[in-house]
Structure formats: C-alpha cells, structure tokens
Known about the structure:
heterodimer; A: mainly alpha; ABC transporter involved in vitamin B12 uptake, BtuC; two-stranded antiparallel sheet; 2 strands; globular; B: mainly alpha; 13 helices
Amino acid sequence: MRSTETVRFPKFQRRTLLMSRPFLTVLIVAALWIAASFAKPGFGAFGHLRYLVELGAVVGLAAIGQTFVVIAGGIDLSVGAIITVSAVGVPLVSFAGDESGAFAALITLAAATVIGALNGIGVALLRAHPMIMTLAMATFLQGLLILLAGGSAVSAQSPLLEWLGSARPTGVPAGVLVWAVASTLSLIALHATPFGARVFALGANSLAATLSGVNVRSTTVAVYAISGLTAGMTGLLLLGMNGQGYVGIGDPYLLSSIAAVVLGGTSILGGSGTYAGSIPGAVLLVTITALITVVNASPGWRSILFGSLILALLLVSGRESRRR
Amino acid sequence: MSAAGSAPRLYWPAQRQRNRGVKGLLTVVAAFLALYAYLFPGLISVSGVAKFSQSWLPLVLVSMAQAILMLAGGVSLAIGAMVSLGAVIAATTMAGPLGVAGGAALVMVAGLVTGAACGIVVVRLGLPAIVVTLAASFIVGGAALLILPRPGGAIPAWLSDSLAGETPVAALLVILAVVLWKLYLATPLGLSLYAAGENSVAAYRAGVPVDSARIAAYAVSGLLSTCAGLFVAAQTGSGDPVIGEAFTLNSIAAAVLGGVGFLGGRGAMRGAVAGSLLLSVMINVMYFLGFPPVAHYIAQGLIIVGAVALPEFTARRSSP
C-alpha cells in the first residue's frame, strides 16, 4: 500500500521541480518580465502586467480545449473558426426577453460545444484524421460565417458581455477570473478524474487504451466537445473585450493556442503534458508579442522575431523523443 | 530469373494497386470536368485550356509540395508563406538588373534553401514538423514582408503574357511537373522517399538514407512552393506579401482528397494532382452555376469529409 502511494506522489526533489516544463516556462516568463521592465520602465507597471494577463486569458481559454485534444493524441485546427462563429453568432441568437444576455451566451456555448462534438464524431466514427476533420470543419464554418454575418462586423451589447469585457471585481479583470475558474476545473478534470486518465491513455496508445476497456469513441467526442466549449468561451470573451465581432476575429488564436500548448511542454504526439504548462505558455506568448511591439520594428521583423523566438524556445525544451 | 526481367513485372501491378485507391476520385473528377465542359463549351479550345490550366497550376504545384512531405511522413504549415516569398522575390528582381533568368534562379534557390533549412531543423534536431513549419511560416512570411512591405513590384509584361496569356503554357508546365516528379522518383533520394515515410526505422536498417531523403523532400517542397509563387506573381503582374496564405490549407485539402495519408508512405502523387484538379474544377463549376463564393467553402468542407469517410465505410462493409 505504502509503495503505491510513493509512486503516485514521488518524494519532493529540487531537481524534479527544475526539470518540470510548466515550472521552466513560468521561470522564462518571470525572467522576461523582469528584464523587460528594466529595459522599458512602463513595462513592469501593475496595470500593464494585468493587461498582459488579460490578453493571456483569451489565448489560455482557447488553449484549454487544445490541451485536452493534443494530450488525447489529436489536434484541433477549427479553434479559430469556432471562436469567430461564437463571437459573430451571439447577436443572432439574442432575443427580446433575455435581459442579461445570459441565454444568448448559453445558446452560443451550446452551439460551440455541438460543433466540437461533431469534430469528435468525425474523428471517432468516420475515423478521419483529426487534422483533416477539423480543417474541413473550419472550411465549412468559414462559409457558414459569411452566410450569417454577410462579411460585415456585428456588435452586441448585453450586461453579461459588458461585464466580461470591462468589469474588474476587486481589481482582477473578469476575463482573468473566468480563465482562473476554467483552468482549475480543467486541471482537476485532467489530473484527478477517471476521465482525465482515459484522455492520457488514449493519447499514449489508443490501441492499448481500447484493449484496457477505455471507451475510445466517447472519450474522443468529449475531448473535442471540450475544445468547442472553450473556443466558444474565448469567442464570448473576445466579443466582450472588442465590443464587436467580425469574420476573422478568431483566426490568430488557432496558431497561438497550439503554440501555447507546445511551449507549455505538452507533447504534440499526445499522451503526456499538462494544462499547468499551457497557462504560462499563453502568458509567454502574449509577453513575446508585447515585447516585439515595444521594440517598434516593422511588421516583417516582428513576424520574423516571433517565429524565431518560438523556434528557439522549442530548441531549448521542446524536443520530442522518437517514440513512434 | 534476372533482376532486369522481374522489374517490369513488379512495376505494373504496383502501379495498378496505386491506381485502385484513386479510381473513385478520378471518376468524380471526370464527371466534374464533363459538367464544366457542358456548361462552358469554350473549355475545349486552346484558350479555354490555357485559362483553366492557369487557374489550376498554382494549386497543383502547392499540392505536390504538400504531398511530397506527407509521403515522407511530415507536413508543412509554411506552404502559403513560401508562395508569398516566391511571389515577392519574383516581383522585385525580375524587372531589375538581374533580369528574368536571374530572378527565376533566385526564386528557386530561395525555395530550395528555405525548404532545406526547415527539413534540417525537423530531421536533425528531432522537433515536431507541424510546430517547426508553424514557426517557419512566421519567419518566411516576415521575410516576404521585408522584401516587399505592400503589394507592388513588377513582372516584365512579356513573361506574364507567355505564362498567363492565351497560349496553354501552364498546361505544359503541369505536364512538365509530373514528368519531373517521375524522374525524381527514379533517383536514389526519390526511391527512398516512400520507404522513409512508411517505416523510417526499417528503412534505416535496410540502408536507406532516411535523413537525406526527408531533407531533400523538404527542399523540393520549398522549390515547388516558391515556383507557384513566381507563377502567381506573373499572373497578377505584381507581387503581394500575403498572397499565398490560402494555399496552406488548400494544399493539405488537395493532398488529403487525393488519398495521401498523414502518417507517411501512403498514397501517390497522382492522387494529390487529381485532388487539386477536383478542387479547381469544383470552384469553376460552382462559379458558372452562379453559386455565391460562400458555397465553395461549404462544399469544400463537405467534399473533404466525404472523401475521407467514404473509403472508411466501404472498407468496413467489405471486411466486417
């Protein structure tokens, strides 16, 4: 009995902490913040750092679903499209009797979850490769969006969205609060529930997982549904912060959600990783973007810097063992 | 039995086996082509073929670029950025002192070098291809923006006329690309491509130069992408630093439609070429039927899922 306990909770060692990817990513973020605030006085101000974390919340929310999907051995390329659909879709589903806008938000989230579940069904039942299925879904949604929004920007005002976008209960932006709650829930789901164990098993070896009695189909559908749900939440948050939604609003978040997951130490091959790494990964990404803006370089150099930094960070810590 | 005698006997059955996978796709493509020719009788003429092959050529080049990587067990999210890079290099150099030949050579060298650099990072450093090419898309896209910050530049008019004019040069270029691909497959690097993608460990133990085959695949892929950019620049008569963006996803879509698998070693180049033809014909037909551009996206999404799901269902029925 005691031996299994120690296996589950290995004795604390300083070395383990230093080797842990989430902790390393936090260190990188802290070092960047300290260095940047010396180089540029306004950078380290509380207001600016809070703004960075608020931006990180958008990336981080999208990265929740992406983390689940990547750990389960897949990838979701429709995150950006789902974000756009939910940001543009809110005004379409809002109706007169709904004073707070909560119903419209719930309907949007439900729709986003269903879209995600459809991805999962495609992957699990049609056995389409995740990249193909989610790519096709993204293409499909792109067409649907132009049909819905007609290419123009839509604006939506409701107390709920306003709260999401600008409220600061006790100084913490509402978006960050939502992110914190969602992160806690997803960390619990991933590491302390049977469902989380099944997700890891599925990503490590789907055949072995099937033979061990894991219901691969329902787990896959659930994982993609979670991705749809968090992408929907990202869309609502973006709509609240921007005040209006337009076609293409979610596009940048596809690549940054994948980058946040990978920078956080989750293996793109599946089976290992944690959302605890994606959190600093998301903050790291927005910090890099902010730093590049501070440097005041031309768009070309900014893009080159961003790509090179991601590549450099990968070289430091993102090597994949050649398992397959 | 001598080796020389047995080779042809192995060759044709192998080719037939590869055709079996794309037979359904070829039927659909033929049906769409017939529909297109029925709607637009002008297609069956020299200028009709010229116009159609011009709209198809960039897509077929990027689909081949993506398919090579997928056959070798990789994937690239940087295809679009490479197309933009090729376009801006062509638009800034060809009208200058380097001339058309110098500019074209520079476009090709840029493609080969950038592609090979990606390949070296992926293969030698053991980083996941999807993330490396994602980072590369930012770097290459940034380089394109540096070379030409806003749409501009110029392509000599005679080059635009000869590549994208009334003569079917583009159709000849498609044929040339396919012939060159066949020749590439006959070289040691090309022969190793399938082996490296199918089972890299087994191939390595059998003496196949796995690493060089995969790096060469990345280099050839870069070359094809920047050449597609050159053609796009010639078509529009100028360069645009973000013109290639849509090609990344379309190249994956065409390769997947053609039955090229993500895990390497599965599928054939003819499938990717047919897949790009289907996408291109589909867009033209829908345009002629008066569908709004929206319908293209929806139809493309449905066709991709259908193409993947259909073989799965038929396979399940035949072997339960």
